[in-house]
Specification:
Shape of chain C: flat
Distance between the termini of chain C: 13 Å
Largest sheet of chain A: none
CATH architecture of chain C: Orthogonal Bundle
Order of helices and strands of chain A: HHHHHHHHHHHHH
Distance between the termini of chain A: 22 Å
Structural class of chain A: mainly alpha
Low-confidence stretches of chain C: 1-23
Largest interface: A-C, 124 and 131 residues
CATH class of the largest domain in chain A: Mainly Alpha
CATH topology of the largest domain in chain A: MetI-like fold
Strand content of chain A: under 5%
Mean pLDDT of chain A: 87
Low-confidence stretches of chain A: 1-9, 281-286
CATH topology of chain C: MetI-like fold
Oligomer: heterotrimer
Number of domains of chain A: 2
Structural class of chain C: mainly alpha
Largest sheet of chain C: none
Chains: A mainly alpha, B alpha/beta, C mainly alpha
Amino acid sequence: MAGAAGARLGVGERRWVNAVLGAVAWLATLLFFFPVFWMVLSSFKEEQDANTSPKLLFSPTLDRYHDITSTTSGLLSFREAFFNSFWVVAVSTVVVLLLAIPAAYALAIRPVPKWRDVLFFFISTKFLPVVAAILPLWILARNLGLLNTRLVLMILYTGMNLPLAVWMLWSFFREIPRELIEAAEIDGAGLRGQLASVILPIALPGLAATALLCVIFAWNEYFYAVQLNPASGSTIPIWVTTNISTRGNFLAKLSAASVLACVPVVLAGWLAQKRMIRGLSMGAIK
Amino acid sequence: MTPTLELGWRHRSRRILPVLVVAAIGLAAVACGDDDSAEPSGAGGSESGEGGEITVAIVGNPQMEDISALTPDLFTAETGIKVNYSVLEEGTLREVVTRDVGGGGQQFDVVMIGMYEAPQFGANGWLTDLTPYAEDDDSYQFDDLIPTVRDGLSVEGKMYASPFYAESSFLMYRQDVLEAAGITMPDNPTWDEVAQIARTVNTDDMAGICLRGKPGWGDLGASFTTVLNTFGGTWWTATDDGSVGEAQVDQPEFKQALQFYNDLIQDAGEDDAANASFNECLAQYQDGKVAMWYDATVAAGTLEADDSPVKGKNGYVTAPVKETDASGWLWSWALAIPQNSPDPDTAWQYISWATGPDYIKEAGTQVPGGWAAIPPGTRASTYEIPEYQEAASAFADATLEAMEAAPIDDPGTTPRPGVPGVQYVGIPEFQDVGNRCTEQFSSVIAGQTDIDAALSACQDIASQVGG
Amino acid sequence: MQLDTVRQQPGAALGAAPKHDGLHRPWRQRFPLLPALAFTVLLTQVPFVMNIWYSLTDWTIVPPTPRTYIGLDNYRDLPDDQFFRDAARVSVVMTVSAVLISLVLGTLLAVLLDRKFLGRGVARTLLITPFLIMPVVAGLIWKNQMFSGLYGVVNWVTARLGLDSIEFVSRYPLESIVVVLVWQWTPFMMLIMLAGLQSQPAEVLEAAKVDGASAFGTFRQLTLPHLRPYMELGTLLGTIYLIQVFDHVAVMTGGGPNSTNIPYFVYQRSIGGGWEFGKASAYSIVVVVVSIVVATIALRVVSRLLRGEQIA
């Protein structure tokens, strides 16, 4: 019975309402998903079919996928881009969480003085237009020899996602009942113990959402990646855009590349949404 | 229920912590022992294989895709030089290359730049002069280059970039549609004649003509500027020493050209014109939605390809004129060596192969598109290859004629500032002015802005240059 | 009432943690915060300061000129720049509409997807997918395959209904971009709202049901107030990201009087062709200052988030 904002209706009526609402949910889902579906469809078309009037019936082909995954020495391959992206995103997300969880604790559960200002500072770092930040960053990266490396993106994405993670985790940590924290402290738990036994389990949905968003933002980040790593250390978004041409149609190929680029993040999304289950917080420490 | 839950939470937290610890160790390992495949730039011919390794930045057009696929077999196998390509989208390529070349970044051994940048970068001293290399290299056949193309990439006789691909513009039309309407396209037509034909064959199902309308100095800007030139208009006057004078957007010729262009699109132009550039017009032309198309000569290769729905139905004629003798544009994607490149000799070896006559001959039999898909417009010898003449019979002559006639030195009726250029003005500021002005003009085409307001805004923008 | 025991009071109550308690020495309190803070300061303030420096010079790369200090000249020219004002107007309209619409849609979807139904996990994953697509690709797909006057699916549908085809991106550039932004960012809002809904413990809702509350009443009096801080969080974060929208503008319209927003405008001044880094930096600094002012007002005055109010 958990999970249903139930009503005092009879059993039969409740089922009917649930069914209708479920159908509405699916209708909304399919509507939203349609352009993605169309993109997937395009990935199986010839360019002629993808650049003309909408066609639901056509002879599908895997050629576009062959085109984009064929590895030629000297060209950025899907494998290399995936490898780079995977490491950059994994490391930056882990570091973001490692930094943001304690920071959110220090701002929500045992707030430091001026916690409001600290929070504001974090969010203010995102006000500078990305296009303005790129020039100093490029100069710094060049001088430190970090151009075209995975490390520079790991650092940048960590900084890029930290404000988001701090804010989100802060708002989820605020939810945690005071009594549970105090109970853990009485049991002698320090920061780490409190985190492990009380905070993280209860805030798991929020943690999952935060991690997922960090992964998505880092995975799809294109501007910094292409400006700093065009020659090597290139990531998936760069690989996807190698398919764009100004002298020939490319939508089918681009769709195929985009489908491949999305698959890992869809998996991450699936995993994350499984963690977003309403729980029984009061039962945790009794 | 409570005890089970309690166990559940503690159990899960026990699993999370070790994961985090392992991840932290992994982080340290990865971050430190980083990147063997991602070394700080391959620039500099670092030894790997006997010949070395170079990094080349290119744009992702079909001919470039072809050569990047063929490089391992045709070049690396012969010379031992490994070539790493960075394929970038055109706008990004320009941003990255300009900053790299201008800022001494050394990320690339060879960069692909356009005819707009080559003379400017050369004059700035950012590029290695290729003329000595070219003259010493027999296999390169310096004299084979089409003169207008070579001049467009040179400053005072020094060639700063070697052309890989070149195009002009001409008018493509559906011969069958015009015949059915009883119309014969004249040789060397004027814009007035073309406009009349377009309006005549224009129907609900098939627009008369496809003209670019998408904002951008290289999109609408290119197409419109050639019209502007031949209408006797210009963007700026030139002072005696060739620098920028007064903005001429407020002159009657400019408005006349823009009005003509816009009216033709409104009356007989393609759908969604304000968004249309090469690709969109290509799609519509192949779909039979437009009867004529004024755009790059390279389009012919696609239109006459084996899988093209309009193969064999097209005629090609010179770019329409009004007050000048020729108006086709001139564009080339060319390979250049940045000034402080550590290993220009290896870089030249690559350039000599990629832009030499031998690659063109080899590519004809190896690229997926066949002979019609080889890089066009750079060399006279290309047009003497029998297989090419056959495969490209419909458009080879028209293309060569357009390339040779492109009025690179004298595009309009008045002198222009800066280095020579047909569909652009050869000053660094044109890119920005062109972008912002074409945004206004595109808005006119979309019916969102009044033409006088657009011209006035553009005059403001253009007036900020020079003086 | 059971509900009271679940309420907590962050900020106000927790902030007044007794200082004599051995566990609450100030440095120990601050310590967990330091790594994140130090990292952020280092990574973000250095570029910011460098930008301030550039804005005080006349640095242009093309044509290459030596960089000379010119003081506040770049700023002096700003107020007259009509194009900057247009870009600001477009930015405001684009951001506000995208944020508000996606917030409303995201909340509705979160409420719908919070309850159990057949295939909920799949539906949730599918609903996230618009957000997973690269902005460049999303812009191209929508422009060429959804909105296109000739070939778009939308026009194909409206043609079946007997309407004329509309050239969406040409005629309605700003609206078209907002549609794509809403499409991509509604899942973002939905994720936050969903996590917010999930953090409302089931016992509370059970208790309300036992006490005889109707579904709608529960929603209005318990869930909605509980969600309100999350809606504000979503608005704040959404605004931060949507202000920076760039790829959609570049790919869908290429700019124009009704679609060039601030990021695209600054891009055009700098690496997009203008290569005037001094001026571009000046614009950026102005943007930062204005954003700080607006955010301060919004957060301190309007929002509950930083007032330390109760949740639930």
